[in-house]
Specification:
The chain has a domain of 43 residues. Helix content is 25%, strand content 0%.
Length: 81
Amino acid sequence: MEPMSSPEDQPVSTPATATAATATAPAPRAVSRVRASELHGRSWLNTGGNQLDLAALRGKIVILDFWSFCCINCLHVLDEL
């Protein structure tokens, strides 16, 4: 077993080392906000015939699943829609 180190053996934080640590830390990424365009569609599944608008969806988690009839993976999940 190694002996426990004394407080004198511990690294000391000084203003110089704190500044150096801050300078090497990555800057927080800027969050860019882009307003989503309105949802326009002929009809929506699972809405009971109601139209969707962004105001009604604000604050909710929304998953949009884009698919096509020419995509084999899309056709496999078509029956689950």
